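Comment on the following before class.
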Amino acid sequence: MSRFLLIVSFVWCCCSCISLHKDNNMSPEMPGGEYTHADVENLALLCKVWGFMKYYHPSVRAGEYDWDRELLCIMPSLVSLPSKEKRNEVLVKWIDQFDFKKKNGIYSLCASDSIKLLPDLDWIEDKSNLGTILSDRLKEIRDAERDTASYYVNLGVINMGNAVFEHEERYSKCTFPNIDYQLLSLFRLWNAIQYYFPYKYLLKDNWNEILLNHIPLFLEITSRMDYESALKRFIAEIHDTHAGIYGGPTKKYLVPVVIRFIEGKAVVTEYYELKSEFKEEKQILQPGDVILRINSEAVDSIIKRITPYISASNEASLLRRIAVDELLWSNDTLLYVDYERNGVVEKSRIKCLPNRMRESTIFEKPHPLVTVLPSDILYLYLGSNIGGKVPQEIKAKKMIIDLRAYPVMKKIEGYWEYNT
């Protein structure tokens, strides 16, 4: 299981045109218009400095400042600057506002073969880019004495070691566009992964370059749909199947069949279980049908179009997410589907049902938790949304524990005691 739980609810609604801060003062706003490559580089450095201080500066990590507000206040000062030297001067002046107890000594990291991933702090040593004064300020923060606990991140045992990001204001009254809060969401996410994603060393592309590539995309957002797309494209860069946007708007309707990619083809394999009032609904598609086109677009074209927006660790998980969450979903109640059945290509207008009418997913089904199979074999299906209790005393000769689905924690008793 991933040691980093990326739940994007903490940035989902962080683009509000109006923000009431602790002192009720309004922050200066980012200017509209075109942004130069130098502006993007300056904003990228601000992102790195702001995140570094959020997680390393003793007073900031203790929650003594409204750190979102501090970012929004300084952000306009980092654009339209005449030189790199002026940018560094602005950042030094900003950093010096947040005092802390200096620690004398030489910075060192413990060297151990057991450490897979060390903090990426080499950039603060780059005096050719930061200048001597800014580099020295950042190294003082790195070397500072600080409490183990962070106001912003909970790494407690109760979270199974996952980083849970707390005290992140949601700014739930969202309107677009607003460059300030769009960049705030990007900066939050980039730094969360920079410092707390344990598989960062596996990323295909340079994480600093990814930041530079995505700042222009967040500057160009004009609508909520643009914002959601920009977030998805950014999240997809970490190639983690567990990562995504949760709790936001989704498509409302689907054709209630399960699709799986088999030998590169989108094949209907089974039906979803439906609630009683829809159980008699006639299904046009049948198991074994191969989906060819949806609303006149070929399946291969759909895959190519939406792949940049889906975070997946490998091709198999990518295709599974496309099959389960994308292909036969719609905001309309009808889809036009071309499919092949027994070597014959057919085209049908297919009715979609509301998603809430499903009783099952590919991971959870209304099947019994415990079944006794022939030859005295006990079968435990932990994806059962009927639930029940795992037998405390098992007398069967053999046992099958089906973990192809996540255990339904709210309805199954006894499994976690065995698991621990």
About this structure: Residues 37-56 form the longest helix (20 residues). The first strand starts at residue 153 and ends at 154.
